[in-house]
Please model this.
Amino acid sequence: MNQRRKIRLLHTSDTHLGDDWNPAAAARALSAVVNGIRTLDADALLIAGDVFDNARIPDSTLEFFVGEMARAAVPAIILPGNHDLYDAATLYRRAPFENAPPNLHVISKTTGETIAFNALTLDVWGRAMDNHTPSFRPLAGMPPERNGHWRVAMAHGHFHFPDDTEERSSPIYGQQVAAAPCDYLALGHWERFENVSQGRVTAYYSGSPMGAATERGQVAVNVVDLDPTATPAVSVTQAQLPL
Ligand SMILES: [Mn+2]
Model:
């Protein structure tokens, strides 16, 4: 008996929609990731922060994003990051989000919140960032109790390797990852793909979909397979998708 379903998640971050350098490229990369939901047969999409580049972006960029999430059709869970803070002036409360499709879920509680997707036997926890400082702890407040569902946590911040002694904003430490009561930790903030798993907790940065792969006409996304009958139950690969 196992109440967890076999499910597949796509994890990306740092899409930086509306960036000053090349907003069209950022938009194309997001669309390529959304296209990948069907081609990779994913059950949900996670975007771990810095979805938007800055708070000055026009409503048209927000409307584009909301439209793409509607096209995604599967649950799409968004964690605000340091470029798209969930503060008093957050862009996530602007008008285009009033028309958000029901599958779009923005983590908005700065003390942390769990969003349940019972059909997927999945709970997603995250803590919305309202300030990007050394005192903001992305993993603080994750509830220890579990309900038998998959628990995926999302966090936007800087992972400290053991030899990394510099104090950084929104720090994430190895012991915190190892002790986190979750099956997978979807990280954002770094532009590159990186495995920072600790102990029994699988933790990865996805990197931006517009990383080095863009030069080859592709974007990269993390494919997270959660399978209660597999060993290990959590496996992560980086897939390339056509732009
Ligand atoms: Mn960031």
Observations:
- The mean pLDDT is 95.
